[in-house]
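Quick review question:
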């Protein structure tokens, strides 16, 4: 996905762009192309190569949060350094040629050389090579002259790259020349000014340039190029123009052209995102029909698949409208899921939006049935699989209004409506299960043809110290060094749309991400939930504590959820207390067991804890690895200190962004 389609009669291409680039240390970039020419029709490149032009060698990471820099603090833990040779520059200053080699085989590290000048002790040039996903790269960066404003900034970047996938190989050489018009020195940067009162980083993220200045005039590049084209590059242009002229003169075989376009369209529909531009401000997008990221597999949910269709349009004053539908199927539960949602963002400066959502959720058990089952003597064994407590289908409808009161503090107000009906004939659920007579009578008495509930809902979310920037009138939240706190309250009412379920639901959730060092991260999550003031028949349906039976795509959760817990337990208790801790680093265990661990980008340790009615304490301990192709986690569970279980989760990560 994202790899451009090339003509069959050519295998060499050229692309030239002229751009304005806005950079804020340590790693904020905004680039706008102002001029383009080439033989591909559009500004295209090997997937993922453009970010290699955004290199700050003095930052902890060379690219975003990847590729640990050999100049990063404490990088000696990951690299070995040797002086290859010593030479002199034109000013007779000593230049040390330093070789750096990774201590471990990993795609997170690079192999290369750098030249450091004595006295100034700044890097004059650096070369490094490595691999990221399916991309092999070899980069050379030349820094500005000593004593100038560009001494610590790159002025020229050259990249040799190759991309190989499914017996297709693409190689490219990229050259970038940078000329700085305006350099400003700041005392603090967004990374180290964590105690500042102004969290608006718009000045660091915005680039002002004249969009009307965009041009495709080939002749203009004669005045823009830092050096002229060589003979091989000129030949590519001449051949391209000759082919273009011959195609205009030759008669078009419409049948052959239609057949090729038809098969190309079919291939795009099956393998890539299909996006149709309806007008300059509106688009319709469909997820690929065959797409590994829409599949997931775990022990508790089995194989699941989903499809998305989305419509987006931008209105005046930065307002926007989103319409989407999601279809999915879980092969283990043999359940079909659907969801239709609409979201109107009416106040983009304060993230104000109105959302309407309708769909069917996971099948759910009646809490009164759970209470009847609790009457069974403690020495009895309940087989959830045979009993099949997923007795009720759920049709839900939600309207919610969300807006940000002040920076980092947002409020959501709305209501939820549920219509639940038996998924099958009541007798089929426990026909073969031997239950006491009084329990069976209670089960039958609490099964009705329909249950309705109507509940107003309030959700308060607070992230202290929230950094953000403004993209026009649209506010875009970034990160914070503090946790995010969420309080969610819902109150069921009687006699609204024939509702009978009266209850109160309150949940608290806290999540935090802490960077503990180079390539290391700590995540933790804590939450509690409670159903109170129950009257009539109600269903225990928490918002923050539930089982998702469909894949979430590239960001499908492995940590922060329970992987070995049976889905029946999520609706079996009126309260829960949960905690999750996960630690991520690239060199934990595997480097001691396996010699070559290149493809393992990260290793993760998990600890999950839970207590609730009839289940507690419950623990899960897990270990996972992350590669550019897949993420995998293995979990061992311990229930009440005597029952051991096992769980796992597998998600695709190929071509993740």
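Suggested answer, residue by residue:
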């Amino acid at each position: 996905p994202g790899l451009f389609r090339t003509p069959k009669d050519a295998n060499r291409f050229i692309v030239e762009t002229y751009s304005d680039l806005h950079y804020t240390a340590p790693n904020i970039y905004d680039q706008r192309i102002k001029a383009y020419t080439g033989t591909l029709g559009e500004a295209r490149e090997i997937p993922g190569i453009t970010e290699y032009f955004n290199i700050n060698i003095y930052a902890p990471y060379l690219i975003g949060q990847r590729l640990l820099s050999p100049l990063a603090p404490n990088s000696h833990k990951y690299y070995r350094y040797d002086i290859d040779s010593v030479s002199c520059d034109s000013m007779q200053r000593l230049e040390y040629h330093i070789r750096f080699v990774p201590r471990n085989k990993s795609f997170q590290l690079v192999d290369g050389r750098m030249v450091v000048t004595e006295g100034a002790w700044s890097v004059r040039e650096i070369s490094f090579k490595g691999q990221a996903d399916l991309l092999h790269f070899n980069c050379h960066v030349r820094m500005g002259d000593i004593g100038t404003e560009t001494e610590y900034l790159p002025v020229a970047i050259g990249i040799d790259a190759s991309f190989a996938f499914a017996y297709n190989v693409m190689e490219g050489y990229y050259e970038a020349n940078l000329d700085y018009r305006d350099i400003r020195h700041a005392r603090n940067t967004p990374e180290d000014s964590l105690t500042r009162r102004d969290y608006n980083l718009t000045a660091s993220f915005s680039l002002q340039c004249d969009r009307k200045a965009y041009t495709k005039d080939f002749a203009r590049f004669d005045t823009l190029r830092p050096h002229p084209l060589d003979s091989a590059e000129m030949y590519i242009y001449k051949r391209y123009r000759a082919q273009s002229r011959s195609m205009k003169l030759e008669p078009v075989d419409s049948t052959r052209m239609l057949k090729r376009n038809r098969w190309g369209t079919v291939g795009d529909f099956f393998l890539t995102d299909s996006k149709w531009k309806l007008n300059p401000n509106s688009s319709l997008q469909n997820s690929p029909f065959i797409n590994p990221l829409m599949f997931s597999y775990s022990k508790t949910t089995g194989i699941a698949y989903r499809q998305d269709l989305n419509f987006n349009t931008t209105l005046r004053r930065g307002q926007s409208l989103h319409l989407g539908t999601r279809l999915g199927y879980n092969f283990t539960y043999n359940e079909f899921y659907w969801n239709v949602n609409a979201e109107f963002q009416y106040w983009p400066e304060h993230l104000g939006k109105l959302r309407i959502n309708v769909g069917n959720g996971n099948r759910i058990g009646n809490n009164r049935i759970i209470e009847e089952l609790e009457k069974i003597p403690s020495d009895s064994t309940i087989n959830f699989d045979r009993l099949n407590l997923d007795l009720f289908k759920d049709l839900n409808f939600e309207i919610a209004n969300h807006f940000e009161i002040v920076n980092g503090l947002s409020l959501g107000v709305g209501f939820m409506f549920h219509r639940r009906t038996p998924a099958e004939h009541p007798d089929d659920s426990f026909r073969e299960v031997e239950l006491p007579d009084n329990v069976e009578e209670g089960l039958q008495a609490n099964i009705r043809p329909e249950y309705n509930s109507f509940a107003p809902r309030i959700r308060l979310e607070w992230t202290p110290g929230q950094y953000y920037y403004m993209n026009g009138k649209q506010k875009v939240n970034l990160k914070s060094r503090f946790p995010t706190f969420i309080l969610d309250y819902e109150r069921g009412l009687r006699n609204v749309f024939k509702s009978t379920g009266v209850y109160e639901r309150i949940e608290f959730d806290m999540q935090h991400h802490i960077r503990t060092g180079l390539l290391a991260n700590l995540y933790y999550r804590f939450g509690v939930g409670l159903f109170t003031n129950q009257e009539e028949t109600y269903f225990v349906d928490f918002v923050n504590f539930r089982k998702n039976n469909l894949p979430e795509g590239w960001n499908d959760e492995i940590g922060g959820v329970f992987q070995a817990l049976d889905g029946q337990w999520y609706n079996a208790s009126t309260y829960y207390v949960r905690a999750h801790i996960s630690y991520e680093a690239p060199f934990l265990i595997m480097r001691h067991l396996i010699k070559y661990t290149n493809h393992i980008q990260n290793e993760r340790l998990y600890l999950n804890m839970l207590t609730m009615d009839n289940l507690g304490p419950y623990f899960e301990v897990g270990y996972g690895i992350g590669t550019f192709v897949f993420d995998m986690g293995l979990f061992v569970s311990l229930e009440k200190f005597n029952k051991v279980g096992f769980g796992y989760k597998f998600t695709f990560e190929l071509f993740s962004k």
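Why it works: DSSP finds nine helices and 31 strands in the chain. Residues 189-194 have pLDDT under 50 and may be disordered.
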